Amino acid sequence: MAEQHIEDVYQKVTHRNPGETEFHQAVREIFDSLVPVFAAHPIYMHENILERMAEPERMVSFRVPWVDDQGHVQVNRGFRVQFNSAAGPYKGGLRFHPTVNASIIKFLGFEQIFKNSLTGQPIGGGKGGSDFDPKGKSNGEIMRFCQSFMNELARHIGPNADVPAGDIGVGSREIGYMFGQYKKIRGGFEAGVLTGKGLEFGGSLGRTEATGYGTVYFMEEMLKENGTSLQGQTVVVSGSGNVSIYAMQKAEELGAQVVACSDSSGYIYDRTGIHIPTVREIKEEQSGRLSEYVARHPDAEYNKNGSDIWCIPCDIALPCATQNEIDETSAKVLVANEVKAVGEGANMPSSLKAIHTFQSNGVLFGPAKAVNAGGVAVSALEMAQNSSRLSWSFEEVDHKLQQIMKTIYENSIRAAETYGRPGDLAAGANIAGFLKVADAMIDQGVI
Ligand code: NDP
Ligand code: 2IT
User: Residue 8 Cα, ligand 2 centroid: separation in angstroms?
Assistant: First the structure.
């Protein structure tokens, strides 16, 4: 009966959101893990909690006009989905990438509900962004775009209502421009309206590193529980942005050797270990392409086919670029090369079939909602610091982050065990995240 109910709701969701394949995928993945929960607690069925959760509380889409350096007026589309506020203000990043559409924003916003719940902090779920492409834009163009984006977004957000942050294409520079514009519109300094801010105006130490470090802390915990560690392991990390760079840095610090990373144009393979400062210099400081790495490290190889990065033999794979970057074929290659563990630094980087391939071949699998939750967790710590008008040391934030990642691991493992899916962290993370939000919603009436 539980299975039939969940299937019926899934059919309604696909019917109500036609063509939104990424959103359907995220919903399918969560719904499938909830069957034992619904079988054990029919109240969730009677409360029709799943249909309520899969329908955003609100979603806005808006015009973002801006003037480019040639004086031409350009138009982009902005989005913000306010998915669930049962546990706290909507919280989640903003993505600026040409592929952004309603389906992408909704899959990210939906997953954010469960991820944020898992952190144990009082934050609801939301997400936003635009199909604006920051690549090749001047600083002035980025600023004018961010200001125009905020001209509309400002009316929908606030420190107690909805608190955006960064995601793909949005880092501290963009957050700074958006914060400046928000402040100007509001006429007051509301520090807690955005997270990932610069340290001079309310940002938290450790937020820049949080997602990548948290990813590796989670992996270390998972490996430890399985009698091993990162020490001496060969690691492949996709992407070379915020999450990827700090995941590589922490993995190396814990004794692993990172041999490959990528960007949207290709990947580099350096058998002697990626020189991370060079990657940072090229990508963070010069907004360059990873292909430039080989000029400085002639022993490294560059390959234009980015998805082939998963053909490189490794013990641990950390997909940290984007959704569906590991399909079933790549997963099978990783398994054939005897990968031991996969940790999702990006959101939904593995297709459903890829996840199944890992799990059915005994690969330790850390799901995105748990693995990459360190970013939003430190965002919530930034909100706490802003509310109290204090700022904590890097060590204090980093210590809290380590504790949070450990607790997320333990809660996910426990939930999986309780509901008959021992060792299945993907199901456990979904279940643990779901229970708290579902109970909060029920306690608050029909909302
Ligand atoms: P960045 O913009 O800093 O970096 C993204 C990286 O991934 C870049 O190297 C980029 O290549 C590559 N990339 C992006 N899109 C594609 C694509 N369609 N195909 C191939 N490569 C691509 O973003 P983040 O590091 O912040 O985000 C990476 C992932 O982590 C995303 O899935 C995001 O949702 C997730 N995440 C981010 C958090 C955060 O705090 N920032 C928190 C939790 C999850 P190029 O340089 O060529 O653009
Ligand atoms: O996907 C994510 O969790 C993020 N992009 C971070 C969100 C946040 O509010 O820090």
Answer: 31
Q: What residue owns the CA closest to ligand 1's atom 46?
A: 263
Distance CA 76, CA 355 (A): 34
CATH superfamily of 56-188: Leucine Dehydrogenase, chain A, domain 1 (3.40.50.10860)
138 burial via Cβ count (<10 Å: 0-12, 13-18, 19+): exposed
Compute, in angstroms, the gap from residue 97 CA to the centroid of ligand 1.
10
In Å, how far are 97, 100, 119, 169, 310 from 132, measured between CA atoms? 6, 8, 30, 9, 29
Query: How do residues 280-309 score in pLDDT, each as one tens digit?
Result: 999 988 889 999 999 999 999 999 999 999
Note if 406 is an active site residue.
no
Identify the active-site residue in 106, 127, 283, 369.
Answer: 127
Please state the separation of Cα 81 from the chain's center in Å. Answer: 15
Rounded to the nearest 10 degrees, the angle between the axes of helix 102-118 and helix 425-443 is: 90
Residues in contact with ligand 1 (CB, 6 Å cut-off): 97, 99, 166-169, 211, 239-244, 263-265, 306, 320-322, 345-347, 372, 375
Query: 């005994």: which residue's tokens?
Result: 362
* pTM for this prediction: 0.98
Q: Which fold has domain 208-371?
A: Rossmann fold (3.40.50)
Domain boundaries, the chain: 56-188, 208-371
User: What is the tens place of the pLDDT at every residue in 124-173?
Assistant: 999 999 999 999 999 999 999 999 999 999 999 999 999 999 999 999 99
The string of pLDDT tens digits covering residues 197-243 is 999 999 999 999 999 999 999 999 999 999 999 999 999 999 999 99
Task: Please check whether the two domains, 56-188 and 208-371, share a CATH topology.
Answer: yes
